[in-house]
Specification:
Blueprint (H helix, E strand, L loop, with lengths): L4 E2 L7 H9 L3 E10 L4 E10 L8 E7 L10 H8 L4 E5 L16 H8 L2 H18 L7 H4 E11 L1 H9 L3 E4 L2 E4 L7 E5 L10 H5 L6 E6 L4 E3 L2 E3 L1 H10 L5 E6 L16 H24 L3 H10 L39
Parallel strand pairs: 4-5, 4-6, 6-9, 9-10, 10-13
Antiparallel strand pairs: 1-2, 2-3, 3-5, 7-8, 11-12
Length: 345
């Protein structure tokens, strides 16, 4: 295993920071894997709890970045989750990673459009499967054996959210052949700012095979602008509504921007950006408590704490604010969101 790099956790008071220097809350390790079957590099960065509970398996999130990203991105999520006992493996997709921004600047648009093609989407899902294979193998030393096989979660932002959906069962049909990238080892999914499946008229059919609980996060000003690919918040709501599995949650922040969910500090405004990052990281943990522990207390606290930055439905009396349907999980059931409504958890 590569040498561990010890990093500080989220900003804390000075006295607490000194204590954390002695006892880091998480460890970070980089891997440069090669999928020989595809002759494709699959770099990854692992955030691991510094002091996991003795004898207790560690939950794992496998994270897929957006177009033009890398394993170094979305570090606020990896740090936050691992410092609280949930490991996070950030996978880098070499066909749609930060290399798109390098080279002739006049070729950027062409490189972005090429990276958004169907074959790269399929390759990304294969990257996630391969990285999880390696994570659970001797390639990571003793860590793979410590992963809780019942609590492996797929996650991603933007293009990575599409990758996540493919990994947990979303399907498309091409020339009579179903493209199926399902990895049944995942038991839940975190879907942040998912673009539409461009060219697919029947979104419900695309999502019909998603059979795990999903958390969906977006914002009212969550707009994607890539030449040839425009998408607004209505597409995030459409994906949420198209999933038939009864255990799903939707959070919509007020204002914001599509890239505020990355490590960038300014999109959406400095103050809101920082709040949304922390709220998103906390919400994911509350969601995992809900589905794995059947404990909705953290989710209810989250909703109370972050209500000021959540979008409000046009008619709040028309439905409960907690957006979870069906099942025995102790949260009120609600109807699906209409495309013109913004509901908060």
């Amino acid at each position: 295993m590569n040498a561990m790099l010890l990093l500080a956790a989220l900003a804390v008071p000075h006295s607490a920071a000194r204590a954390q220097c002695a006892e880091p809350r998480y460890l970070v390790s980089d891997f440069d894997w090669l999928d020989h079957a595809r002759l494709r590099l699959v770099p990854a960065r692992l955030y691991w709890p510094a002091a996991p509970l003795a004898g207790k398996p560690v939950p794992l999130v496998v994270f897929s970045h957006g177009i033009g990203g890398s394993r170094e991105g979305y570090s606020y999520l990896g740090r936050h989750w691992s410092a609280r006992g949930v490991a996070c493996l950030h996978v880098q997709h070499v066909g749609s990673d930060a290399a798109l921004w390098r080279g002739n600047p006049f070729g950027v648009i062409g490189r972005l459009q090429a990276a958004a093609q169907e074959q790269e989407a399929i390759a990304r899902a294969a990257d996630v499967r391969f990285a999880l294979d390696r994570m659970l193998s001797v390639q990571t030393g003793d860590l793979g054996a410590m992963v809780d096989r019942q609590r492996i979660v797929a996650a991603g932002h933007s293009y990575g959210a599409n990758t996540t959906l493919l990994t947990v069962g979303a399907q498309v049909v091409r020339e009579g052949r179903t493209i199926d990238c399902l990895d049944s080892r995942f038991s839940a999914a975190l879907v942040i700012s998912a673009p539409p499946f461009y060219g697919e008229a029947d979104l419900a059919a695309v999502m019909s095979n998603v059979a795990v609980p999903t958390l969906h996060v977006t914002a009212t000003d969550d707009v994607i602008e890539i030449p040839g690919y425009h998408s607004g918040v209505e597409d995030r709501l459409a994906i949420f509504n198209a999933i038939a599995h009864p255990h799903k949650l939707l959070a919509v922040f007020r204002g914001g921007a599509h890239s505020m969910f990355t490590d960038r500090l300014f999109p959406g405004g400095w103050s809101l950006n920082a709040k949304v990052k922390l709220a998103t990281a906390d919400l994911a943990l509350a969601f995992l408590d809900l589905i794995f522990e059947r404990d909705g207390a953290a989710l209810l606290r989250w909703e109370k704490d972050w209500q000021p930055i959540l979008a409000q439905p046009p008619r709040p009396e028309a439905a409960p604010r907690i957006m979870l349907t069906g099942g025995a999980i102790p949260v009120p059931p609600v109807r699906a969101a209409a495309p013109d409504e913004y509901k908060a958890i």
